[in-house]
Amino acid sequence: MDLVAACRAFVSVSERGSFTVGAAAAGMSQPVASRRVAALEQRLGEQLFERTSRRAVLTPFGREMLPAARRLVLAAEVLEQDAGSARRRPWRLAVPDICSPYDLARLVAEAKEHGIVLDLRVVGTPARRSELVRSEQVRAALLAVPPDEATWSVPLGLAGARDPGVRRLYVETLRVGRTDRASSGRGRRIWIQPEDDVPHIRDPLTRLRDAVGLRPSQLVVAPDLMTAAAEALSSDDVLLCSPAQAAGLALHWRPVGEIAPVRGYALDAAAAGDPQRIRERLGEAVARCLGAGPDPVPYRVSGARV
């Protein structure tokens, strides 16, 4: 038996003195109201109404039960109202600045279809997003994590303004003196954007730099993506980025020859968050924003798609 529905029928009939009128006021048919009140009487073990041909009159037991039934119905209505307000409350989510405005707009639109109102905060560094979650300034954030802890993974490679003409770009080819593109003797640089300035990406690249004999100055952490992209566009330097980012910047992307760096992302929620709901309903849209979708951006080598 639905106790709330039964009490709602009981209260409505008692207030109007009629099963027909009370049922209509409660948004149900008269037979349904009668069955619900009968079930409630059976549950409570006493008759609630003296039924006559014209009116439904409360019994002494019914009069005693009416206040409690009203409180239950009111509590249920408050609960339903609170649930509706919670569904409509914006779900504040911190996302990295690698996401394009178009993909973020699609994420917000898809969230609406699932009854979720997203309030996105574009935050440029993983550390800052983590801080926003800890301080509960956002309900959740997409945090940078090692690949083995990730829900979404994004392959990284090196991208430059010119087509390198190879399928993979080996870091060792950037050594000063072994490339025709060295500038002022400083060598070609690899630019790391703030999003990738995390140990599981930066440290393997640093070890690789030292192992193949690059200068320390050839691996640079940029203050922002714009600076790093501008250097790659205006020189022979390369940018560590995803295929999707390279396509958006009109750069030629290649996998790294020696290692396979990967961005990993996981959804971390504050105490008031509900990450499972976002992962289940918006997982594919989040993957698309991060460049981790099922259809990776293709790149070309000598006219051949690879």
TrEMBL record:
Family membership: Belongs to the LysR transcriptional regulatory family.
Statement: the UniProt record of this protein carries the keyword Transcription: yes
Keywords, in A-Z order: DNA-binding, Transcription, Transcription regulation
Organism: Streptomyces ruber
Stored PROSITE patterns: HTH_LYSR (PS50931)
Domain of life: Bacteria
Parts of the chain that traverse the membrane: none
DNA-binding in keyword set: yes
Stored Pfam families: HTH_1
Protein name: LysR family transcriptional regulator
InterPro entries reported for this sequence: LysR_HTH_N, WH-like_DNA-bd_sf, WH_DNA-bd_sf
Record GO terms (molecular function): DNA-binding transcription factor activity; transcription cis-regulatory region binding
HTH lysR-type domain span: 1-59
